[in-house]
């Protein structure tokens, strides 16, 4: 047991207490951020005349050594230290003696850990944003290749109206596009440096917090030292945004599972992204999509957990806050893993265009357009709706689609129908006359794609 704070204690900590309290098994994940934060702190201390140039040079050199040794595996992060902060500081003191003991001047572990977690979250946020961008590029490619791939659009999981695969994919482009905007918004709000908040009340040393913030790439320092050490809003916002990403991925996964089913066969997931059964030789299961759907619960769990942890904590730092880490790390790793795997699965998936088209042809997806045809020929909409309802009943009885009815059969139900009805209710007409902004018609979709490309280029 190696502790930074043994001075006022007369007894060793109970072993179980020590284990319960320690965080090194998980906070070692941000050893790099911890060392980088210390380096910025030391530069600032020297600039303010609190450390000498020699002390700064020695500490920086040794911190760099520790970093590269940890990275190469030469120096193992030992769990005999309470946390990553103690590990780094103890190693520094081992190597530098008294000079190493000066590192923590004007700093508390409270503002140190607040900084480390913020730096780590900021890195994760940027990586998640990049993965979202790659997913959007994959979706856009599928859209461009499938402007005229007709498929049924669903409501209540019942065939509703024909759309295109490009149009369906564009809905997901919007969702993941908003997810990227959320990354951006969170970044703008969180990118302020808590270091210099001290334990809770700042410090009597003349720290230049603006300088430290600048060295670490922040917009500036946080403005209240009690909030600085105890704010975890940015993490809650990030977990919330990750939960939303997972919700989108999960909906998409659910659709792919349905589309990949024996009954639908709209898509075939690539062998590289499928798994088999130990007993049923014919099986090819969509496990990746199912796992993405399943892992969504873990990420939601992290969000609810942190919200609950934070809700009763009085100002300022309390040890409860150590609980922000394990679940957040898990949620961050999970969401990134899901984004990467999902993108790979989507990029390699085959779309069975004939099957999609065939499915749109059946199920009366053009019934609304048949009613609209009547309306355009002077029939009030409510009457037209009733007429087409009777046509659907007739077709169900005969087991045929509407366009397989002869003109005389149609005229027997409404004399308004003429030969041009067949063109009016063809799948192509149904799709391509829907040209309002955001609709599936090819010309409307082309405009959408232009805007989406501009959105992607605007980084
Ligand atoms: N491991 C602690 C955490 O994650 C570091 C801060 C400790 N501060 C303290 N006053 N005990 O929150």
Automatic annotation (TrEMBL):
User: Can you provide one Gene Ontology molecular function annotated for this UniProt record?
Assistant: argininosuccinate lyase activity
Look up keyword Cytoplasm and say if it applies. yes
Q: What is this protein called?
A: Argininosuccinate lyase
Could you tell me what reaction this enzyme catalyses?
2-(N(omega)-L-arginino)succinate = fumarate + L-arginine
Recorded hits in HAMAP family, A to Z, give:
Arg_succ_lyase
InterPro entries per the record? Answer: Arg_succ_lyase_C, Argininosuccinate_lyase, Fumarase/histidase_N, Fumarate_lyase_CS, Fumarate_lyase_fam, Fumarate_lyase_N, L-Aspartase-like
- Look up and give the organism this protein is from: Roseburia yibonii
Q: Where in the cell is it found?
A: Cytoplasm
Identify the metabolic or biological route this protein is part of. Amino-acid biosynthesis; L-arginine biosynthesis; L-arginine from L-ornithine and carbamoyl phosphate: step 3/3
Q: Which CDD domains match?
A: Argininosuccinate_lyase (cd01359)
Q: Which UniProt keywords apply?
A: Amino-acid biosynthesis, Arginine biosynthesis, Cytoplasm, Lyase
Argininosuccinate lyase C-terminal domain segment(s) = 364-432
Q: Which Pfam families match?
A: ASL_C2, Lyase_1
Instruction: Name the family the entry cites.
Output: Belongs to the lyase 1 family. Argininosuccinate lyase subfamily.
- UniProt xrefs under PANTHER family: ARGININOSUCCINATE LYASE
For this protein, the Enzyme Commission number is: 4.3.2.1
Q: Where is the Fumarate lyase N-terminal domain?
A: 7-301
Q: Does the keyword Amino-acid biosynthesis apply?
A: yes
Q: What is its main location?
A: cytoplasm
Q: What class of enzyme is it?
A: lyase
